[in-house]
Amino acid sequence: MQPASKTSSKWTSTLRHIKRDRQLLILLIPCIVFFVLFRYGPIYGLIIAFKDYKVFTGILASEWVGFEKFIKFFSSPDFWLLFRNTFLLGLYTLLWSFPFPIIFAVLLNEVRLIWFKKWVQTLSYLPAFLSVVIVSSMIIDFLSPGRGLMNQFIAWLGFEKIYFLSMPEWFRTIYISSDIWSSMGYEAIIFLAAIAGISPTLYEAAKVDGCKRWHMMRYITIPSLMPTILILFIIKSGAMFRIGYEKVLLLYNSLTYEVADVFSTYVYRKGLLEYDYSYASAVGLFESLIALVMLLITNLMSRRLGGRSLW
Known about the structure:
The protein is mostly helical. It folds into 2 domains: 1-34; 67-305, Orthogonal Bundle (MetI-like fold), CATH 1.10.3720.10. Helix content is 71%, strand content 1%. The chain has 15 helices and 2 strands. It has helices spanning 4-20, 22-40, 68-75, 78-97, 99-109, 114-125, 132-142, 149-156, 168-196, 200-208, 213-238, 245-251, 257-260, 263-273, 277-305, and strands at residues 51-52, 63-64. A two-stranded antiparallel sheet has the order 1-2. The longest helix has 29 residues, at 168-196. It is flat. The mean pLDDT is 87. Belongs to the binding-protein-dependent transport system permease family. Residues 83-298 form the ABC transmembrane type-1 domain.
């Protein structure tokens, strides 16, 4: 048991730090309120995944059914289709979308023409300010079999037009390509900031030793970025199963369900269109648990192999 004087000194130190940082703590209040209301508050509603929820009966008065909704989902023919589609779409997005911002940031750092560098940065940031609806509309117009720019170019070359959005084999390519285009510039900001924090003396010493730019990039820039890369890779891996329904919902159709239907779009259909709230909550909870497991596994692997982790 700690002496009273030691406990008192700790409280005094804590109060002194609170008083010193009071302005920053006040600025933090809206963030805390947001997370309490919109992140932790809705957790209470997850109990409907274990109930036969009726809107007019209410959450507490609805009948408990245990794991009935989960068993129904696991035994349905949709389960493995959704699991495969979500896993593959998340995996391909991670493998292709994650390296591009790193490569872009490293290459952009090597540009010595300031005006050209700023111009490229500005153009690369612009897609991040467009909503998912606008990006999806641009994709649909660009790939339209009627007056779409891509099909006009294909017809000009003498080939037959391709109905991209109606062909299952093209859906993942379109989804991942659009994700790279819309997020590459914005995500590169993190890596550019990490590069700016590298000590210039390392590059100066390398120049004295006769290293060329390729060697400096390989042996100084990229190794210095590894802590940032590992942390972001952990976060991205944890979100691999958390594919947002918005863009998939806007781009897919009945002809591409077999490759495009994922957990989030299934939850949307079952919950908001078919009003089966308990079943949709069970599917959403399972998706969240899978994402949590992926995050824990990736974090453990990163700590064991690279010595870096989120905790």
